[in-house]
Amino acid sequence: MVRILVISDQLYLKRQLIPQRFQNIEFVFDPSTDYDYIAVIDSVDKKLISKVPKSKRILYIGEPPYIKPYLSSYLAQYGTVVGPYKLHHSHFKVSHPILPWFVGNKQNLGAIFFQSLRSDDTKRRNKFCIITSNKCLTKGHRKRVEFVERLKKEHPELLDVYGNGYKPVDDKFEVLSKYKFCLAIENCVCENYWTEKIGDAFLSECIPCYYGCPNIGDYFPKNSFIHINIDDYEQSVQQMRMCISRSFDHNIELRKAKDLVIEQYNLFERINADVNDLMAMTPKIGIYHTMEELYPYRYTWLVKIKQYVAWKWNIIV
Question: Can you tell me the distance from the alpha carbon of 292 to that of 48, in angstroms, rounded to the nearest whole number?
């Protein structure tokens, strides 16, 4: 049995786990136990001392470059780095971010619940919702807030707004499960970068009008979502009106997308696949027993400068 230590600051990871899908693999979450590989989602929370060598440590990048710059010295602690955009690392894999689900957190709803969910459109509001915040740190944040505020003011019949700075919610599922449609607007436009904003919509069987990842069609069926461009406000409003006025039968494609989120794009599936790739290289890796230190992400002065430039002028340095 191969044991993988999974490190994340998210509290609800385990509900995404479907144990019967994994043979000879066990995921553990306590660093004090024995383990063979380390999978870190963004950062360890504190310094970790481990005998697991660099070659068996995987880092999963969860933030776009506009939000969080990753220095080479930080990435060098890991033998493999996985993320949506290319970074300077000798063994880098391109992948969508393996972010935890947020929908269903309060009720601790897991993969089995969402697999069996069959929503009734007749009981849902024929209107759009969005769960967001009024945070305006980056250009992407500001664009989204401006778009949502204008919609809320000019077309309140189309959209209900929830989230920090609006109507707070304890659990996204409480909102998404009550609406036919939602707006899913990412913080940035970056290939392969899509997040729980669209994933949570699929899990809730709420049809997303989506803005963000340009190649989102490479990941999900084209009829499971509606692509909008928030830079074209009038066209976006027309698309939203069309959704509400027409009878959409997206259930089959929507459930295909939901199954992809639960199974293929599940963070445990990704970790399992990456560890299996490393296991195939075991003869080259060898066995090590030297204790090594793994440090958390640090906001150094260089990181803060890069972050400020990205937030202020939308420039990656």
Answer: 8
CB-based contact 268:8 (threshold 8 Å): no
- Asked whether residue 284 is assigned to any structural domain, the reply reads yes
Do 47 and 180 lie in one domain? The reply is no
- Domain boundary, last residue among 244, 262, 280: 262
Cβ(43)–Cβ(297) under 8 Å?
Answer: yes
pLDDT tens by residue, 3-18: 999 999 887 889 999 8
Tell me the C-alpha distance between 186 and 167, whole Å.
Answer: 20
Element holding 159 (H helix, E strand): strand 159-162
Mean pLDDT, the chain, rounded, equals 91
179 shares a domain with 37: no
The Cα-based distances of 179 to 5, 119, 123, 317 in angstroms read 38, 10, 9, 41
The SS3 call for residue 21 is helix
Is there a domain that residue 271 lies in? yes
pLDDT tens digits, one per residue of 133-175: 998 888 889 999 999 999 999 999 999 999 999 999 999 999 9
Number of domains in the chain: 2
Which residue range is the domain that position 74 belongs to?
Answer: 2-98+266-313
User: Is residue 106 in a domain?
Assistant: no
Report which of 250, 260, 247, 248 is spatially closest to residue 216, judged by C-alpha positions.
260
Let me know if residue 105 belongs to a domain: no
Of 235, 262, 289, the position where a domain reaches its end is 262
Helix (H, G, I), strand (E, B) or coil at 8: coil
Mean pLDDT by 10 residues, the chain (317 residues): 93 87 93 96 94 96 84 94 90 92 90 85 90 90 96 97 95 96 94 96 97 97 95 98 82 92 95 94 62 90 83 70
